[in-house]
Amino acid sequence: MKNKIPLIGFLLMMVLLASAQKVGVVLSGGGAKGMAHLGVLQALEDNEIPIDYITGTSIGAVVGSLYAMGYSPVEMVEIFKSEEFAYWQTGETQEKYVYSYKRKDPEPDIFTIKFSITDSLIIEPKLPMNVISPIQMNAVFLALYSQATAACGGNFDRLFVPFRCMASDVYRKESITLNKGDLGDAVRASMTFPFIFRPIEIDGRILFDGGIYDNFPLTAMRRDFHPDYIVGSAVADNPDQPNAKNLKASILNMVMVPTDYSINKDEGVLLDFSTDLDRIKLLDFYKIDAMYQLAYDSTINIIDQIRAKVSTRRSKEELRERRKAFRATFPELRFKTMKVSGVNTAQQRFIANSFHEKDKYIDIEEFRKSYFKLMADNHISEIRPTAVYDSINKAFDLLLNVKLDDNFYFAVGGNMSSSVSSQAFFGLRYQRLQSRAWTNDLTAQFGRAYNGLQFTSQVDFPSVQLPCYLKLTGNIQGFYFYENNKPFYQDEEASYFVQQERYLKFGVDFPSSFKSKMGVGVGIARLYDSYYQSPLDFMQHNKDRNRYDLANLYYHFQVNTLNDKQYANEGQYLDFVTQIVSGNERYNPSSLLGAEIRRDNILWWQSRLLYEQYFLFGRHLTLGIMGDAAYSTHPLGDNYTASILQAPAFNPTVHSRYIFNPAFSANQFVAGGAMPMYNFTRQLSLRGGFYGFLPLRPTEKDENLQARYGDYFSTFEYIGEVAFVFRLPFLSASVFVNYYSSPAKNWNFGFNIGYLLFNKRFLD
Prior knowledge:
The protein is of the alpha+beta class. 22% of the residues lie in helices and 40% in strands. The chain has 16 helices and 32 strands. The strands form 4 sheets. A 16-stranded antiparallel β-barrel has the order 15-16-17-18-19-20-21-22-23-24-25-26-27-30-31-32. Strands 1, 2, 5, 6, 7, 8, 9 and 10 form an 8-stranded mixed beta sheet that branches. Helix 3 runs antiparallel to helix 7 (183-190). The longest helix is centred in the N-terminal third of the chain and has 18 residues, at 135-152. The protein is elongated. The termini are far apart.
């Protein structure tokens, strides 16, 4: 009898297990609305309802996959609230991974067409396939999913909770159920909504968002898992019937096939939040707390109905121990070997030399730094990293699928303004990547305030120990300043001041840290200034003229992690330039009786430091601070206007870049400012700017229009500006009003749409 007791106990346990009810959870797609799924999962756990299977589409796949790999709803809330996720959903690169060394000087491009020229000389233009860059997401998914993929051996049935997600093959017009392979790739495919995210290829198929053909994967739950009871969470509905004025509804109806969100009462229950969450937009993830609580409360309201149908219970302690045991099977995420595909042998060498030291394990943080270094290179379009676990070496093999960018870029941009600063920009680039990277840019700008033509050629030499690049720059440009810059003013007169430059520079740059670079170089230039010294000259159309033939030797140091090229609200910028300049000056007065004045072999030293940084206080408030200091030993010129035109100028705002205000120029000065901002959304903000300018000794004009130095710290000038700024990844728009302390009553207002960015001057 004693020998039969264990057998009887075993048989009873098998009977209980056989009769235990299995519960499946189905999660719909729906963008940020999917945060409601977390409240449903938490309510089920709090009431000890087991979750034995889970299926999801799009955001439902993200939530479902995290649950399936052992994350609790509370842990998922923290993930979705994290700074890293905020960058993931927008495609922006985190500031700490911005590789300043590869950042080029900003250009006012708005729209870019990439193309290649085939052997038959056919031009194949390519429009952008996505709004949100995959750079950040690819790195996040590698870190988030690789260990779980290794732990389950690529079989989603062996996860903490068996899992399925849906993707769409738009070529074959069919829904795809993903049940194996790389978990991160599966989730990425499931959430790749057309034109928002870039599609990925799995098993030879280009896959898009699963919601196109199946936004509520109930069929996959029934077919693959046969649960006894199903809990469905739907946060989306079928698109509204389109009309001629509703573009969004028209596109959604063209893209998405209607989905049946119903569940039969005899097989489960549906929690439908689509109406309650109707006002939540695609990327409103910051409203997670409200969505979570809504779903939690709604689930609690029907929990007795679920408990009546599901007799099986799973305690929180048991669930916690099971999670802990499963996640203990995750191998350490470190990489031993790297394999590169998608490029030729020479290009593989470039990538390997840019990545990490050989014969060394690298952890996920070292991977991120090397990955973002590579993605900062404009020659590379995308890198899809995949980790494959090697059980012998107890490490992962890192597979990098690299897609190169096209060889040619054509860019269009500029600025539309209420004043004279409207500009048109065109750019053409040819680039080539082999064991070294070669980039050639030709840009042109046209407008009333500025004209510029610039050519640059850069060769990159990759190296883990000491990378560098050589750069040649040729520039022809002119700055035109008018007496009247008021809004909508049409000035038919000649410009009051004109500055023209022609220069050639050659330099070499090195990274001094992950966020900084430094370099040295030489340059030669010919500068022209033509100007009116007095209203009488202006009426007679007689201009004085100066010519400067210069050469310089310079050193510069730069940090640039700003998140926008015109209206940043995150990151840091620091630029220090010091240089020795020598040359000859020629002055030709407007008077026909005036003789040319020559000054030869002038030698001076000039340094400048610019600093800018932004601090975030909560979700809505940002404070920016900036500083600017210049010191030049350049001797005063032949007259006041010549002296002030060649002095360093303080231009902290967009408006100040296209006006000439002598009160904010001096050979030596310190300046600074504060930029408080209220961010209504990630795109729209109210931006203030309050700036002060203190010359060491102001340049003054005597009764003969000659220049002289004033007393030390005898003047202080200031600028105040308030602007509404609307910022998109490819465009910014602003409406502003500002005030300058000099001249008196100097109020200005206007708007800018686009980017007002000029090429650097010779002495910048």
